[in-house]
Amino acid sequence: MARPYDYLIVGAGLAGLVLSRELTDAGKKVLLIDKRSYIGGNIHCDDMDGITVHSHGAHIIHTDNREVWAYIRQFVSMNGFINTPIAVSGNAVYNLPLNMNTFSRLFGIRSPQEAQDQINSDCVPCEEPSNLEDYLLNIVGRRIYYTLLKGYTEKQWGHSCRELPISVMRRIPIRYTYNNSYYNQRWQGVPDQGYNDLAAQLADGAEVVLNQDYLPDQRFLDSLADRVIYTGAVDELYRYSLGHLEYRSLDFETVRIDCNNLMGVAVTNFTDSDVPYTRVIEHKHFTFGDDRPYTVISYEKPSAFDGTNIPYYPVCIDKNIALYQKYAKMALEQGYVLCGRLAEYKYHDMSDTILSALRTSKALLKKG
Is 207 among the catalytic positions? Predict the structure, then answer.
């Protein structure tokens, strides 16, 4: 007997939504489920007194990939937002990413050569760094590392920098120009219509079932479709039979404040280890010309994933990657298609996620 759906997609976050759009456009019948009460996963936004709030942290699309940028712009226009965060250490404020404004403030210099000379004299040489601390001390030196990087990074990941792989800092650009744009990519911005509208357009055409936890009804749900695409945590899929993978979670405290402009920027990092939060997000700055006499901010506090909160990103250290590979092998042998940050156990940004979903859908459609 034919099954009612060609594909069951578990998880209506960004990966699941892009897969759903591509598969339904190809004429496939898709059942898209999520245990939350809304689609969009971590790109979901809420409205607080007319201000759009990024409910799960700042989400900014940034990419050099023409395919990804063109794909998003099929559904929404982009507002041209440029991320220019600042970092607070003690009573001092620094521009991010590390650039000439940062070096001028930190070292009291003004030329690129002076900055390079200062950093070179401050570096701790290491020919083959094996961990993040040795790597950063080798390329940026003690002053930058201890002022701007160490405390923030260890709060974010819940590990000493000596335990972390070098790869976790791949998103931290360093440049010797007076350029405060955090991302190097050619295209970046936030959808004019918001992420909720993007999510709705991507989900259109699929049958969407919310408040549906997959695992308790796994056998029945699997029986409804020819293939299952899973975007969640793969160790949870197997009831942690081989052990627990490690993830980091986030807690958000969002408040309205009777002030037109509190931080002066959308994203402010707090680098000192004794400050419990890593970032403060002032949501009105993701758009332009918002002159309301009040504002909304979110305090972002990293926390351990305990099985009851949301796993926001994987902790990609060697022991976790080795365990993930065992789970992934089991899943693939049983016919599951794995896609998305959690299912692939990679620290994907939004562009990575979209590209992975596009490639996965193309591969599935090619196989028929």
Answer: no
- CA dist., res. 316 & res. 366, Å (int): 31
Instruction: Give the pLDDT mean for 333-348.
Output: 96
Give the active site residue among 46, 222, 226, 349: 349
Q: How confident is the model at residue 171 (pLDDT cuts 50, 70, 90)?
A: low
195 catalytic, yes or no?
Answer: no
Any catalytic annotation for residue 341? no
Answer yes or no: is pLDDT of 172 > 70: no
Q: Is 300 a catalytic residue?
A: yes
Q: Which of 154, 246, 300, 344 is catalytic?
A: 300
pTM over 0.85: yes
Report residue 135 as tokens.
């790597």
Q: Does 197 qualify as catalytic in the annotation? A: no
| CA separation for the pair 17, 68 (Å, rounded) | 14
pLDDT at 112 over 90: yes
Catalytic residue among 21, 227, 248, 341: 248
CATH for 5-45+193-242+316-367 is 3.40.50.720
* Structural domain spans, the chain: 5-45+193-242+316-367, 99-104+111-178
pLDDT in tens, 116-134: 999 999 999 998 999 999 9
The residue from 105, 171, 256, 359 that is catalytic is 171
Q: Which of 38, 73, 175, 290 is catalytic?
A: 175
| DSSP string covering 28-95 | --EEEE-SSSSSSGGG-EEEETTEEEETTS---EEES-HHHHHHHHTT--B-------EEEETTEEEE
Whose CA is closest to 83, among 111, 106, 54, 115? 54
Residues above pLDDT 90, as percent of the chain: 93
The pair of three-digit structure tokens given for residue 32, joined into one six-digit string = 């898209």
The residue annotated as part of the active site, out of 279, 313, 336, 345, is 279
175 is annotated as an active-site residue: yes
Contact between 54 and 233 (Cβ < 8 Å): no
Active site residue 349: yes
Residues 178-226 have pLDDT tens digits of 999 999 899 999 999 899 999 999 999 999 999 999 999 999 999 999 9
